[in-house]
Amino acid sequence: MRNNSVTTAVMTAPGKFDVRQYPYPEIDHASLVIELEMCGICGTDKHTFRGETVQFAGTPAESHTPFPIIPGHEIVGRVAEIGRTASTSLEFSGQKLLVGDRVVMCPDILCGKCYYCKNTFGFPLCEKVRGYGNAFCCDEPPHLLGGWSDYIYVRPDAFVYRVPDELDARIAVMAELMAVTYNLDKAKELYTMGGEGFGSGGTVVIQGVGPMGLMHVAKAHILGAGRIIAIDRSDYRLRFAKDFGADDTISLNGTTQAERVEAVRALTDGRGADVVVECTGAAEAIPEGLEMARRGGTYVVAGVFADVGEIPINPHRHFLANQIRLLGMTNHPPSGYVNSMKLLARYRGVFPFDRFVTDEFPLNQIDKAMERAFDIDRAMKVVVTPSEG
Ligand SMILES: [Zn+2]
Ligand SMILES: [Zn+2]
Fold first, then answer.
1. What is the DSSP string of 91-109?
2. What whole-number distance in Å separates Cα of residue 284 and Cα of residue 287?
3. Looking at the CA of 40, which ligand is closest?
4. Centroid of ligand 2 to alpha carbon of 64 (angstroms)
5. CA distance to 211, 283, 292, 314, per residue, from 251 (Å)
6. Cα–Cα nearest to 237, from 264, 257, 216
7. How far is the CA of 73 from the centre of ligand 1 (A)?
8. With CB atoms 3.0 to 4.6 Å apart as the test, which of 16, 78, 103, 328 could cross-link to 160 if both were Cys?
9. For residue range 105-126, what is the model confidence (pLDDT) as tens digits?
10. How far is the CA of 264 from the centre of ligand 1 (A)?
């Protein structure tokens, strides 16, 4: 007999949590319910926790976190209950879903009707995009539209993905971050345009090797980068990056910006890197990263998913004289999950993916979980698991 009340970790305001009970949701024929196995704490959740609560700033999709919310969107769980038509309509690649199947879900709900939904594909520029764990106030039914919850209600307009049998939950939880690395696929495509981006053997710098940066290190390796340089302030994370395929590491500790730029040049025949990826979530990293790119190189902004303010940039120097192409990514592609999980399965013997999740906390210990997630010297990916007690 299923417990009729569902335990959730609710963020009531920046930095404030409350463990709350909500009723188990009623489903209709086109929706389903996931029973949580684990849900990551993502950089986006940390932005919200710090009070950086504006997303998609300055666009029609601009959103301000509607507290209280159930955060969490790196969701892995088992289908607990499924509507009659949902078994064939909700799985992205068309697989039939049964109760008990392990799934991940894309947090983004796209409207399907706006200019961007109809005219752009893959990277969701949707004017009405709303994300699980970010954009839904949990005061209103069905309440359970975030991952830090024993059960998650999946709307008929969401995308879920059946997890290949060979992936356990601790690896499947990386699917969304691996989908975020599709900006490196974009950068690689540019190589055919006058040698922009990077070709096989090219050099990629990753600024910030927390969970998202680490996935970019692995993906650069998979895509054939010849040299991968990781930058971080945590020696623990830099060692992790080496295990995930980085060749060289540069610490922020005891170095100046000029010294770090010089170090990248020294490793790239004096030119700078073909591609530099920002995975720090800090605006200050961007001018430094632009200095690390070679002329005609590519700079990818991936980490600043919330509005963290402005930073001066010299447009002549970077974009005209050095002709650096800037790639931003409003979000990750929903189409990326299937292949991301194929990559995770294929490369799990090459990279120590099983070490990616370093800490698990039941969701009623959310304060401890969040504190650990900010501890860059001892945690990589921290996840919450079903409530205890
Ligand atoms: Zn995320
Ligand atoms: Zn749309």
1. BTT-----TT-EEEEE-EE
2. 7
3. 1
4. 18
5. 17, 18, 15, 25
6. 216
7. 6
8. 103
9. 999 999 999 999 999 877 778 9
10. 28
